[in-house]
């Protein structure tokens, strides 16, 4: 692969979207040609079992801007994005879905906003999806925003524009694509948001079914942990542990007083509660210590450098 840099890479994860690809390619091309910049369009076929790859191969024969990465099986959207990021040559990288729900005409404005931000995230302000998807997602977005302190409305929008440094430092795996703004903000990148047009899905079906509710909830726990975890595992678990322990000890001191004064003590629910809290508290503190030991073994650099003057030969990514 040539290392020559170009201006813009469009990265498009694709899983069974054969009906949409041709229309997406031509709509994108119309927009990109007008921007007068060098560009490439990278389709990452995430193990499709319809004819998506056949369509993409045909398109790539006609258009030298097109690159196709075909994954061996369905690895999931995060992995597909990571594969695209790893081969993208653009100084700017734009990601979008392949189902024609994102509108390529938004791209020039998103790229323009990158003058002021490191990452510009789309906001599906009028979301054209079933209500069963819109409401849980609204709840999810507001909780994520409160928990992480990042003031955007739509964390999991597939339509985003990045400066190159951001994608170079993102470690995407599992289902982490839902939290790209959180991951980027943790590294010190600035996040902007642009309201984007959202279209109804015209062909095929959504690839995220009912399990997204459970996954979304678990992911939310991950975010909560990730954002507090910045301090340290011991601080997260230790705080809870010390609180439990403290309350448990207070309850049992009270019980001990009763025992001393009345010379007898029945097993009361409160006594059991106090004992449970003490045990839990000790467990939590120990868990925090273990977490601290594991984190210590694999701790990455705790900072990110924007630039060095004079430029030094240190790998900062
Ligand atoms: N996608 C993918 N791998 C997967 C699931 C989805 O590459 O395992 C792609 C899919 O083809 C689409 C994008 O991710 O381009 C968003 O998926 P979808 O439209 O089903 O999600 P929704 O818009 O319903 O949230
Ligand atoms: Mg979609």
Shape: elongated
Helix content: 40-55%
| Counted beta strands | 7
Strand line-up of the largest beta sheet: 3-2-1-4-6-5-7
Present as ligands are: uridine-5'-diphosphate, magnesium ion
First-last Cα distance: 21 Å
Cα-based radius of gyration, to the nearest Å: 25 Å
**Tell me about the biggest sheet?**
7 strands, mixed
Q: What labels would you give this structure?
A:
single chain, 317 residues, alpha/beta, seven-stranded mixed beta sheet, 10 helices, 7 strands, binds uridine-5'-diphosphate, binds magnesium ion
How would you portray this structure in words?
By secondary structure, the protein is of the alpha/beta class. The protein is 50% helix and 14% strand. The chain contains ten helices and seven strands. Helix 1 links the parallel strand 1 and strand 2. Helix 1 runs parallel beside helix 2. It is elongated, with a radius of gyration of 25 Å. The two termini are 21 Å apart. The model has no long low-confidence stretch (mean pLDDT 89). The structure holds uridine-5'-diphosphate and magnesium ion (MG). The site of magnesium ion has 5 residues, from loops.
């Amino acid at each position: 692969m040539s290392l020559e840099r170009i201006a813009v890479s469009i990265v498009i994860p694709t899983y069974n979207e054969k009906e949409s690809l041709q229309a997406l390619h031509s709509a994108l091309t119309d927009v990109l040609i007008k921007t007068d910049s060098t560009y490439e369009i990278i389709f990452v076929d995430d193990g499709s079992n319809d004819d998506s790859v056949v369509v993409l191969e045909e398109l790539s024969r006609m258009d030298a801007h097109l690159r196709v990465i075909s994954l061996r099986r369905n690895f999931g959207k995060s992995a597909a994005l990571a594969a695209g990021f790893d081969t993208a040559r653009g100084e700017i990288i734009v990601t979008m879905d392949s189902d024609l729900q994102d509108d390529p005409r938004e791209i020039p404005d998103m790229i323009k906003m990158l003058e002021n931000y490191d990452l510009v995230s789309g906001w599906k302000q009028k979301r054209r999806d079933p209500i069963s998807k819109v409401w849980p997602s609204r709840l999810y977005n507001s909780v994520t925003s409160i928990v992480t302190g990042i003031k955007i409305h739509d964390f999991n929008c597939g339509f985003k524009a990045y400066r190159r440094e951001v994608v170079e430092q993102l470690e995407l795996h599992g289902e982490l694509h839902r939290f790209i703004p959180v991951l980027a903000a943790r590294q010190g990148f600035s996040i902007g948001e642009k309201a984007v047009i959202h279209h109804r899905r015209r062909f095929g079906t959504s690839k995220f079914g009912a399990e997204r509710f459970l996954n979304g909830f678990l992911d939310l726990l991950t975010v909560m942990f990730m954002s507090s975890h910045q301090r340290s595992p011991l601080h997260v678990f230790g705080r809870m542990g010390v609180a439990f322990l403290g309350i448990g000890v207070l309850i049992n001191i009270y019980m001990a007083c009763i025992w001393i004064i009345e010379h007898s003590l029945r097993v009361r629910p409160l006594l059991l509660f106090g004992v449970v809290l003490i045990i839990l508290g000790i467990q939590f503190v120990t868990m925090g210590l273990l977490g601290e030991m594991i984190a210590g073994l694999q701790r990455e650099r705790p900072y990110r450098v924007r630039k060095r003057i004079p430029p030094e030969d240190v790998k900062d990514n």
